[in-house]
Design goal:
Blueprint lengths: L2 H27 L2 H17 L10 H20 L8 H7 L5 H16 L2 H11 L5 H8 L3 H18 L15 H7 L1
Helix pairs in contact: 1-2, 1-3, 2-3, 6-8, 7-8
Length: 184
């Protein structure tokens, strides 16, 4: 066969397979415009690599392999990348260590287990569940004053067990509260 006849046969085969290439491109990209671009890139690569095709071999297998490889290359080109040398990016990507939180949580849970059960329940219901003293009192069948004293004694005991500094006279959010809420 002459080179002209081979080129004409290649062109006819390429033209005939374009609809199948488009169907395959749609299945890969799931987007009409991207599929058209992929078919066009595949045809260009096939035309540029025409010399590497061996006459008599599987043309459709050869061109579908080109399309698949082009699709994968496109995914790699479009993959988001991060410049790791930039200090701003390195700071944004940084995740603080969490080991200390687990140790603190273990200590808090251990200290909670050492509290008397009625005081522990009152403290957890008021601080974690967000119940009012009135709700806790009515559930337990005790007076509001008893609930307040149980919560206060439990807070003091918990701070002592965790070696926390004593609270000031002003109402301050307990440093244990966020840890307890995270555990719940």
């Amino acid at each position: 066969m002459t080179t002209v006849a081979i080129d004409a046969g290649f062109d006819l085969d390429l033209k005939a397979i374009l609809p199948r290439l488009r169907v395959y491109a749609l299945s890969l990209t799931r987007n009409k415009d991207r599929a058209d671009d992929l078919v066009q890139q595949t045809a260009l690569k096939a035309l540029a690599g025409r010399a590497s095709f061996q006459v008599g071999s599987n043309f459709s297998g050869w061109i579908f392999r080109i399309q698949r490889n082009e699709f994968i290359s496109e995914l790699r080109r479009d993959r988001p990348t991060v410049e790791l040398d930039s200090p701003a990016v390195a700071y944004a990507v940084h995740e603080p260590p969490r080991q200390e939180h687990r140790l603190i949580l273990r200590d808090v849970l251990g200290a909670l287990q050492q509290l008397p059960r009625p005081g522990r329940q009152a403290l957890l219901q008021s601080q974690i569940a967000g119940c009012s003293y009135q709700e806790i009192a009515s559930r337990a069948g005790i007076s509001i004053g008893t609930v307040k004293s149980r919560v206060s004694r439990s807070r003091t005991a918990l701070e002592r067990l965790l070696d926390l500094p004593p609270r000031s006279s002003q109402p301050v959010r307990s440093p244990v509260q966020p840890i307890l809420q995270a555990a719940a």
